[in-house]
Known about the structure:
Order of helices and strands: EHEHEHEEHEEEEEEHHHE
Largest sheet: 8 strands, mixed
Number of strands: 12
CATH class: Alpha Beta
Number of domains: 1
Structural class: alpha/beta
CATH architecture: Alpha-Beta Complex
Strand content: 25-35%
Number of helices: 7
Amino acid sequence: MNxxxxxxxxxxxxxxxxxxxxLSSICDKIVVLDDNSTDKTEEICRSFDKVHWNTRExxxxxxxREEAKGxxxxxxxxxxxxxxxxxxxxxxxxxxxxxxxxxDNIDGSINAWSxxxxxxxQEGRHYRFDSFTTPxxxxxxxxPFCDKGWRKNLLLKYNSDYNYMxxxxxxxxxxxxxxxxxxNIPAPIMNTEDFYVVHYGRINPQYxxxxxxxxxxxxxxxxxxxxxxxxxxxxxxxxxxxxxxxxQYVECPSSWFWTQ
Length: 260
C-alpha cells in the first residue's frame, strides 16, 4: 500500500538526521513543507531520495503562523502523489516500530486513526507523569496515558474525490478536533494503541532554553489570546513546572525506539 508522509519544518536540523532515516524506511514518499528555514534543514532534507521539498510563501510578520493554511497546503501536495494513506507529522515526531505491523494489517474500513503522543524528556529516553497547576491556574498533566492524554488524528485513508477542508482562521496549535488532519474527515475514526508517536520537541534546544515560549507568546498576543507577559509566564510555567514531588520520570520501553 502507498503511504505518503507529510511533514512541516522550520529550522529542524537538530532532529532531521534522526527522523528522516526512520520515516524513509516506512513510506513511499516524504513531502516536506518548509517554513523558510535558515539552518541546514533544506540541505539535510534534500540528501534523502524520498523527500520532495517544498517551501511556504513568506508572511510579513513572524506571528503570522497560519498553521491551518500550512497544513492544508501540505495535505494538498501530499494528495497529489495519489497515496492510499497519508500520515501528517512534525519533523520531531517518529512512530514507534510497531507501526510496521499495524500498517501491514491495516483495517481498510477505517478512514482515520487517532494516535497517542509520547513527549520524551531529558536525553529522550524517559517521559514524565507528574501533574500540577501553574500560577495562572492552568492544569498540566504530563502522563500520556491519562484520560485526556495527548492524541493526534495523524493517519488517514485518502480519497481523491473527497473535498477535505481546513479552517484557515487557526493561527497556532490545534486546528480542529481532527488536528492535524482536515476538519471534515469522514467517519469512522478510530483510536489505536497499536502504535504510538514519540515526540522529541521537549528536548529541542530552543524549547529547553525558553526560546519557544517567546515565540508562542508573540503569536498568541497578536491572535488576541492575551497579554504577552501573561502568555510568556503561562508557557514558561508549563515548561518548567512540576508536581508536589518534583518532576517524576519513567523510562520508556525499548520497543518504542528504532535501532539506528
